[in-house]
Amino acid sequence: MAATIIDGKAFAAEVREKVAGHVARLKSDHGITPGLAVVLVGEDPASQVYVRSKGKMTREVGMHSVEHKLPANVAQDAVLELIDTLNNDPEIHGILVQLPLPEHMDEKRVVNAVSPAKDVDGFHISNVGLLGTGQKSMVPCTPLGCLMMLRDHHGDLSGMDAVVIGRSNIVGKPMAQLLLGDSCTVTMAHSRTRDLPDVVRRADIVVAAVGRPEMVPGDWIKEGATVIDVGINRIEVGEKTKLVGDVHFDSTKDHAGAITPVPGGVGPMTIACLLANTVTACCRANDLEEPEGLTA
Ligand SMILES: Nc1nc(=O)c2c([nH]1)NC[C@@H]1CN(c3ccc(C(=O)N[C@@H](CCC(=O)O)C(=O)O)cc3)C=[N+]21
């Protein structure tokens, strides 16, 4: 059976439209404009592209958008100072520090300097702990976007067998927590997992988040399973480059139940969830009821 292609691009546009509605309501009813600050250190061209598209979409939904670009050789203390200023700025409800940071910086220290209430990436240890204990938190954007697509496709995920491939702090681990929260039976697989193909073959839901182009072949995927491909890998094909996921799409698309494409799957949802998290943070900061369906 041919898989349903889960259109992350269209879904993300719907999420952004919902966000725009809440932004309009916050402005008209409360005189509040949600604000997002993005901090970019260094000149990595790929990072610059993401930051630009984030800024554009932030403005499109009517939010206040600020970008801080710092040179790669900036002192860590200057970044910490900027974060402190943003933490205390009442017009800013969300702060994102683009990762990775240059080598000379202590990434944990910088990430944990962001006020947990404004931590729209959900990377601060307080938010990690809250998510891990099932308490209200800021939820990392990529796993949140994956969860939204899974809920939309399946409704209830309860009792489903989910395998997450990849154990990163930004995707794999929080993804597993969210799936557990929705009562899946969760297996975390990684580079040392024995018999990875057989582990993946059990899964009703496969989330691939390893960052290795097309490493999951179609014959690892159970007939009818749902495949969420988090990988965004740029590979060379002859003279050109193209984007591929962590899953080999062509060998999977004919027997999976559903699959997210790359591009146009998880990526656009990640940005939409960043905007959703900013609205959520803004509502919480102002003791207003937060929108339904935009958080875990
Ligand atoms: N603190 C932090 N938070 C992040 O969320 C974060 C980060 N740092 N560092 C960099 C990565 C990367 N990232 C992407 C988001 C959307 C697309 C996206 O929308 N991609 C398009 C394709 C874009 C293209 O054509 O290049 C797609 O998949 O359809 C890609 C990559 C967020 N990141």
UniProtKB/TrEMBL annotation:
One of its GO terms (molecular function) is methenyltetrahydrofolate cyclohydrolase activity. Keywords: Amino-acid biosynthesis, Histidine biosynthesis, Hydrolase, Methionine biosynthesis, Multifunctional enzyme, NADP, One-carbon metabolism, Oxidoreductase, Purine biosynthesis. It catalyses: (6R)-5,10-methenyltetrahydrofolate + H2O = (6R)-10-formyltetrahydrofolate + H(+); (6R)-5,10-methylene-5,6,7,8-tetrahydrofolate + NADP(+) = (6R)-5,10-methenyltetrahydrofolate + NADPH. NADP(+) binds at residues 166-168, 232. Pfam families: THF_DHG_CYH, THF_DHG_CYH_C. Its EC number is 1.5.1.5, 3.5.4.9. GO terms for cellular component: cytosol. Coiled coil: none annotated. Pathway: One-carbon metabolism; tetrahydrofolate interconversion. It comes from the Bacteria. GO terms for biological process: L-histidine biosynthetic process; methionine biosynthetic process; purine nucleotide biosynthetic process; tetrahydrofolate interconversion. PANTHER family: C-1-TETRAHYDROFOLATE SYNTHASE, CYTOPLASMIC (PTHR48099:SF5), C-1-TETRAHYDROFOLATE SYNTHASE, CYTOPLASMIC-RELATED (PTHR48099). Belongs to the tetrahydrofolate dehydrogenase/cyclohydrolase family. Catalyzes the oxidation of 5,10-methylenetetrahydrofolate to 5,10-methenyltetrahydrofolate and then the hydrolysis of 5,10-methenyltetrahydrofolate to 10-formyltetrahydrofolate. Homodimer. This is Bifunctional protein FolD. It comes from Sulfitobacter delicatus.
